[in-house]
Design goal:
By secondary structure, the protein is mostly beta strands. It contains one helix and 19 strands. The chain has one helix at residues 15-22; strands at residues 29-36, 41-50, 53-64, 68-75, 80-90, 93-101, 108-114, 118-125, 131-139, 143-152, 157-169, 172-179, 184-192, 200-208, 213-225, 228-235, 239-249, 252-261, 270-277.
């Protein structure tokens, strides 16, 4: 299932612009060490400190044949999450099943289908009153229309419904997403610039109709060299953020982020870092 095939999933609408404005901006401290073997087993260990609380997990990814992955993660809360992914379970379809022990009601099955002019996902839990999630998009790799919804069988009502449209061009893309049951709308535009060495500038306008609140956010990413990327963003509320990501060695990354409220000078800046080591 190639990501360049067809219109893409609903979650991909506006994803490139969101990555510039949201990805890796956090105040957490995270260390991940991972390794791979020739037998098809990937191992990783993560330590995380977030809001003064520390946690960690150990994960293993087992590859079986060419179309089956088994991912097992054990965390410091004594829970075990197991995920089975089977590609091409049917032509152009993928199945993902997961369960967290000891919470057996957390079991979930998701099916993804991606074809030339249509893509959809459906997921439901393995409990007595599951929530059923469904999303679908139609179109081409250049233009796509989509919607997603969640239906709670416990109350017999839709708990979520969103819609969106995306237009992709060789050096830019634009998207509009109507979310929160029609209460909010986001308009995003991304343009890639040669002056940024393959980086991009992004603008986002977000409006919440119930409160008449508008938020304008601008951001950019700059490719310093083949190993280093810098990102920054600023909104009309005075929230400034920046990210520096450097590839130390092949597939090993150091990410440093910072956030600052320019309209509240008494608040101290918040800094976070993420270190991914892959020997």
């Amino acid at each position: 299932m190639s990501s360049n095939k067809g219109p893409g999933f609903f979650s991909a609408i506006g994803s490139k612009a969101r990555d510039v404005l949201t990805k890796d901006y956090n105040a957490d401290h995270k260390l991940t060490i991972s390794s791979s073997s020739n037998t098809g087993v990937d191992l990783s260990s993560t330590l995380l400190k977030s809001r003064g609380l520390s946690s960690g997990n150990v994960a293993a990814l087992f590859k079986y044949k060419d179309n089956t992955d088994v991912h097992v993660k054990v965390d410091t809360e004594s829970s075990v999450l197991t995920t089975f992914t089977i590609s091409d379970v049917l032509p152009s379809a993928k199945a993902i099943a997961s369960i967290r022990v000891p919470d057996y009601n957390s079991g979930k099955l998701e099916v993804q289908y991606l074809h030339d002019h249509v893509a959809f996902t459906t997921a439901f839990g393995f409990n007595r009153s599951p929530t059923i999630d469904f999303s679908a998009t139609i179109g081409t790799p250049g233009i796509a229309f989509g919607a997603e919804t969640s239906f709670s069988t416990a109350i017999g009502k839709l708990t979520k419904y969103n819609a969106g449209v995306c237009l992709k061009m060789p050096t830019s893309n634009a998207s509009v997403i109507l979310a929160d049951k029609g209460d909010s709308m986001k308009v995003m535009y991304l343009h890639q610039l040669e002056k940024l060495n393959g980086g991009a500038v992004v603008g986002e306008i977000s409006r919440r109709f119930s409160t008449n609140e508008n938020t304008l956010t601008v951001g950019c990413s700059y490719v310093v060299d083949t190993q280093t990327v810098v990102k920054a963003k600023l909104n009309n509320h005075g929230n400034l953020g920046a990210v520096l990501q450097h590839e130390l060695t092949d597939k090993s990354f150091l990410t440093i982020s910072g956030a600052f409220e320019t309209k509240a000078l008494e608040n101290s800046p918040k800094f976070g870092f993420s270190l991914l080591l892959k020997p």
